[in-house]
Each structure stands twice: as C-alpha cells, then as structure tokens.
Design a protein that fits this description.
Shape: elongated
Structural class: alpha+beta
Number of helices: 9
Order of helices and strands: HEEEEHEEEEEEEHHHHEEEHHHEEE
Distance between the termini: 80 Å
Helix content: 25-40%
Radius of gyration: 38 Å
CATH superfamily of one domain: ibrinogen binding protein from staphylococcus aureus domain
Number of strands: 17
CATH architecture of one domain: Roll
Length: 388
C-alpha cells in the first residue's frame, strides 16, 4: 500500500472535498503532532470530517481518532483563528500536490480571509496565510534552498515544469524533447508530475516503451502519449480498492491496467475508498504504538525498581551510619582516652608489640598490624578505626 497520493489522485480528492464548500469549521483537532482533523458543519449534510496528514493524506473520514488531553500548540492556534470560519473554496494548485482551502471569518464588524495550504509532497506541511499569502503560522517551520516557510514570509510553492491538467500537445512535445531524465517513464513521472505508477500506465495505454529515451521519440509516439494523457486526466472516477490474497495493494480513482486480474472492490468516492483502507490500518498502527508504549513502560518500571532498591540500600546505610555515630558519641570519653594511649604507644612500640599490649583493653577486640588498624566494639557493633 502506497504512503502518499499523486497529483492525479489529488485531483479526484479535491473533487470530493467540494462537499465542504459553504460549511463552517466547528472544531479543530490535532490527534498527533503530524496530523490535523477539521470538523466542518455543512447545512443539510451535518458534520463532515477532513483528515489531513501532511506529505501523505487528505480525505474525508468517518473515524474520529483519540486526541491528547492537552492539545498541541498549533491546534490551539488554529482554533483561535478559524472558529466558525466558512469554507469559501477548495482548489488544487495547478497539478502540484498542494491544496488551497480558502476561509473567511466574520467577527462582529470585521472580516478576515485566510488561505490554509496543505502540502502533500515530501515531508509536507500545513500553512495558514492571510489573503495576500503572507504566512501567519505553519505547522512546522521549514527552510529550503529556494523558499522559506515561517511566519511573516511570503508563501511560495515549488512549481513543476508543466501542468499536466492543461498542458497542450506542443508543450508536451517540448517537455519530452528537452527532458534530461533520459528514460520516458522518469520524465513523465517527475517533469510532468504523474508519479511512477501513472507514468507506466500512460506508456502502456499509448503502446510506447517506457524505457525509451524521452528526447528521441517519434511524432507518432508523442501523439499517442498525448492522447493517452488527455484520456487519463479526463477519465471519470470509478474508485476501487485493489487487493491480492486479501491484502490491500492500492487505492485508485479508477481501474488501472497494471492491476488487471487482481481483486477490485468499488467505492462511492475516492475519499471513501481511502478512508475504508486507512481506517482498517489504524488498529494495527494503534497496536504497534501500544507495544511501544508498553515497552517504554516496562523499561521505566525496571528503572524505578532499581532506583527503589538503591534508595532502600542507601537508607539502610544511612541508618547504620547514624547508629555508629550515636555509639561513638555515647562512648566518646573512652574512645578519646584510647586514641590518646595509641598515639603515645605508637611513638615507642611496633604494631606487633601494641597488639599484645592492647589485648586487655575493654573496647579493643583486635589489632590488624598489617593495615595498622585497631578494631573496637561498642555495645555489640563492631567499628574499624585507624590509629591517629
């Protein structure tokens, strides 16, 4: 199953999203850091939900995912700006994988107009601008070689060499002749923005070898490819879910030759087909996320248990040290005399001689002549002390 939509597929999604035009944004949710959900109330249709996953998906959904107790900052920002905003229009920018949602908000005697741009290429982004295209706030600040996405910058989107939805035959021929991609299929996929699968579908429909050099095609081949392109972009939607051995292989806006022979299930709209498949995938994603959380919890529990044991050990040692201090204090005078005697004896006798001399002493329980230590016992607790 693919992880993003093509320009041609986005065209059909935007067609589905026209049902939101005229509606008002009721709620804005951000289930995860990289996903948005707009709840739009449309007169006569009720509440419709638009799921936005920058760089990947944009479609109407019937599933409302769980949301964090504490909303993300961007969610709160959009809630403040877009409360009761009316959806004026929804358009795809040329054949780019970018959707422009034009919004209008009325507050008392003031009227505010915004563009909410949804970018579905590469990493993707969601960018709110004013009517003139000045960025108010993006979901994520981004800096590229030829454009910058951050507040107060003018919003600029990358442009393909051609718009596949309106390109003329002469322009199409020039695109192929001037291509530096080499293979025809690569030129159609990137320069024209069809994407790999639809580029191959176009070559198959035109009976032109996909690995042929784009700049060396005959006029007949170019003509066949252009007519196939026109037919492809004008095909009426007939959305279907493609499966093989029960597993989803793809979701397409109409049947494709490359999927002939595989199981195909029809859907009322392309959005519905995507929603059906991606909703099926969500439980698996949730299970995987749950496993990660459980693994993290187990790791945390182990750390907590280890720290608890260490704390208990330190507490025990602290109590022992405290008791030793109390015993030393209680026997301070006797210990002080013993230390005084040891200092004097050390000046006249060896440790072996001192060992014999100290045997009768009440506090002394032993003498370690090797380590030069005297062992004393205070009320049943042994305490090692070094001769001062």
């Amino acid at each position: 199953m693919k992880q993003e939509i093509s320009s041609l597929e986005l065209k059909h999604i935007v067609s589905d999203l026209q049902s939101l035009v005229g509606g008002k944004i009721d709620k804005v949710y951000q289930p995860t850091r990289d996903e948005l959900l707009l709840i739009v109330h449309v007169s006569g249709k009720g509440r419709l939900m638009l799921r936005i996953v920058p760089g990947k998906w944009l479609y109407l959904t019937t599933i409302k995912p769980a949301n964090p107790e504490k909303p993300f900052g961007y969610c709160l920002y959009l809630r403040r700006r877009l409360k009761n905003a009316r959806v004026v229009s929804i358009d795809q920018l040329e054949s780019e994988r970018i959707v422009d949602i034009h919004l209008q908000v009325k507050e008392k005697d003031k009227e505010f107009k915004y563009h909410l741009f949804v970018e579905l290429f590469m990493k993707g982004n969601v960018i709110l601008t004013d009517l003139d295209g000045v960025i108010l706030s993006p979901m994520e600040n981004q800096v590229w070689k030829d454009r910058t996405i951050k507040p107060k910058e003018q919003y600029k989107h990358p442009k393909l060499a051609a718009d596949l939805f309106i390109i003329s035959k002469p322009s199409f021929a020039s695109l192929l002749k001037e291509s530096k991609k080499g293979q025809l299929v690569k030129c159609l996929a990137t320069d024209l923005g069809l994407g790999g699968m639809y580029a191959e579908e176009l070559c198959t429909a035109a009976s032109v070898e996909k690995q042929a050099s784009a700049d060396s095609l005959t006029d007949k081949e170019i003509s066949a490819l252009y007519h196939a392109l026109v037919a492809l972009r004008e095909r009426k939607p007939s959305p279907c879910i493609i499966r093989q051995d029960g597993a989803v292989q793809d979701v397409v806006p109409f049947p494709l030759q490359c999927y002939q022979g595989l199981e195909s299930a029809a859907a009322a709209s392309y959005s519905e087909a995507l929603d059906r498949v991606l909703s099926e995938m969500r439980p698996r994603q949730k299970d995987e996320a749950q496993k990660k959380r459980e693994t993290a919890e187990e790791k945390t529990n182990k750390i907590v248990a280890m720290q608890s044991r260490q704390a208990e050990k330190l507490d025990k040692e602290a109590k022992e040290c405290q008791r030793k201090g109390e015993l030393i204090y209680e026997n301070y005078q006797a210990l002080s005399r013993l230390l005084g005697d040891l200092r004097k004896a050390k000046q006249q006798y060896s440790w072996e001689q001192m060992k014999s001399m100290l045997k009768p002493h009440a506090l002394v329980k032993g003498v370690d002549s090797v380590r030069k230590k005297v062992i004393v016992e205070l009320s049943g607790t042994k305490e090692g002390g070094e001769n001062g």
